[in-house]
Design a protein that fits this description.
The chain is α+β, with helices and mostly antiparallel strands. The chain is built from four helices and nine strands, in the order αβαααββββββββ. Strand 5 and strand 6 form a beta hairpin.
Length: 187
């Protein structure tokens, strides 16, 4: 957090959002954060380390959001049967920590790090908005729309398959909607 690499929202209220932080580190779209790391294909952890991190979380985070009545104690207790799995996760975590440490060591500029935070397409995915126009460009909110004969300014549209807009000539729209739908097609 001190270097501005990982968003503060991943520890909001003193609760660590492990899956959100891992999605950010792995260059995926977090479900709850208003931004992601970099453009598509950019990431802090490489593909191998990202896979390791997801394995660690899915293996060791069992029942972390459940009450004790919702799981069996042996699912979350270190036993002879699961000792190897937890030991393996500990070794994988060492590699992930080293990789993150290397990244942090070479990325010490807080402002530069925060520039890698890009708007998260998940923040507008599925929203119903009014179509607007600027010249020949159609958009809804911060989302550029494709050229479709049935899209008209003033009509409503549901944003589906929203991605980061990588076309710098497209103006101030951080998102592009690949598959807009009419509200009737909502189901």
């Amino acid at each position: 957090m001190e270097l501005g690499i990982i968003p503060e929202e991943t520890t909001a209220g003193g609760n660590v959002k492990c899956m959100e932080a891992s999605r950010f580190l792995c260059g995926e779209n977090p479900k709850e954060l208003p931004y992601r790391y970099g453009l598509l294909g950019e990431r802090i952890l490489d593909a191998t380390e990202s896979s390791m991190l997801i394995t660690i979380l899915t293996s060791t985070n069992v029942a972390s959001h459940e009450s004790s009545e919702d799981y069996e104690e042996d699912e979350v207790t270190l036993t002879e049967d699961n000792r190897d799995e937890f030991s393996g996760c500990a070794l994988l975590m060492c590699r992930v920590i080293k990789a993150f440490g290397r990244y942090a060591e070479s990325h010490k500029d807080i402002e530069e790090n925060k520039l890698k935070w890009k708007p998260n397409p998940n923040t507008v995915e599925g929203k119903e908005l009014t179509i607007q126009s600027a010249g020949s460009i159609l958009y809804a909110g911060d989302c550029l729309l494709p050229v479709k004969s049935w899209l008209h300014p003033g009509n409503k549209v549901i944003l589906r398959d929203v991605v980061l807009n990588t076309d710098v000539s497209a103006g101030p729209f951080p998102f592009f909607c690949k598959n807009p739908q009419t509200p009737k097609a909502k189901r």
